[in-house]
Amino acid sequence: MKARILAAVTLTAAVVVVNPGVATAAPPPGACGRTEPASPVVTELPWAQRTLDAQAVRRHGTGAGVVVAVIDSGVDSDHPQLRQPGKVQRGQDFFLVGDLPGSFDCVSHGTGVAGIIAAAPTPGVGFAGLAPDATILPVRVSETDTTDGAAQAIDPEVLARGIWYAADHGADVINLSVAGGLDNHYVRDAIRHAVNRDVVVVAAAGNAQEGPVPGGPAYPAGYDGVLGVGAVDMAGNRLPSSQIGPQVDLVAPGGGVLSTMRAGGHGYRDGTSFAAPFVSATAALVRSKWPELSAEEVTRRILATATPAPGGRGSAAYGAGMVNPYRALTDGLSTEEPAALPPVRRPVPDPGEMRLAAWWEGSTADARLVAILTVATAVLGALAAIVLVRGRRTRWRPRRAVLPPAEPVRDDLPDEMFLVPPPPAES
After folding, report:
1. Per the domain annotation, does 280 fall within a domain?
2. pTM
3. Given the residues 103, 241, 273, 288, the one annotated as active site
4. Is residue 176 part of a domain?
5. Residue 249 three-state SS
6. Catalytic residue among 76, 103, 109, 288
7. N or C terminus: which one in the chain shows less Cβ crowding within 10 Å?
8. What is the tens place of the pLDDT at every residue in 163-199?
9. Is 242 a catalytic residue?
10. CB 264 within 8 A of CB 22
11. Residue 407 belongs to some domain of the structure
């Protein structure tokens, strides 16, 4: 096995908003480059939030009390929608040397993921997180070059350390917006540790699909106990780059979705990296409403309440379908097995009919034609015999219908009824 896992963190062109006068997170000196350019604020509700009915979802749950670890490029804790006290924890940086926090982000990838999960509703801003009261634990394991958008390989030991750290520091849900085609025992062991600690692990399915033929598995989405997430566009169709394969458990919005950017901005993003946090947020909502549920039970509820997708349930491209946080929070599911159906009583077949049916099925077309002609000849012969007998009886004369006798005219009426009265006498 090779010892590298490629991260699905390819940055796309983003429209960014910068709020003047807002202080940005303070990374180590020289850690981050220049700030992204400014752009107007988006005030409308984004399509992904409309599709998932985020406003109705918030009436049933907000993710309060749940910690979601974002193992990524860090999280800008000074973003206006993420800087509420306690929303973004200090976290840990495993990418740079030294005891540094994970609460800064040079490339906006992790900040975008965290915003989809837990960005606070803000007046005048259409975007908000799906679980706005969840807490973010930022774990920094990568940094992508923002000049050319190239993906950067993640050291598997660094990624594994980040997963171990999150599982041991209170994470209820782990979001991994990374994907690659190489299995690695460090990461596999870390995932197993998190699953054993009853953590819901969500991972991107990957953005390397070429054509309609399913490829091999992608990791860490392909590991046991991990919810693998593919990406769909506004029409509900799979993004061409969203990978097809056994790692896809369900899909979520991932084409042109709006999210938070570093330095107080917002931007449109594409890919399974930004579909995964919609599922992580749904897991946070379910864990907040039913804290007694295990991670496996949370996963089963999310899959059972998914909306059917074009590929059909269980397809390699769409998995169980589109994540549906509203149904995940409101559907009443039963853990009981369906009631047994009564036994079917089958009629006892008639031996004669069975022999006849067997002969009919095994006979040739000529034999069947002979049988049909034989039966028809017999029927016509019987009819001819009846006609011959009746014709001889009547000497071939047509028979006339016999009418019933007419009713006799009544002659018993009194004669007075037929007398004409005399004219009146003249005076």
Report:
1. yes
2. 0.73
3. 273
4. yes
5. coil
6. 109
7. C
8. 999 999 999 999 999 998 889 999 999 999 999 999 9
9. no
10. yes
11. no
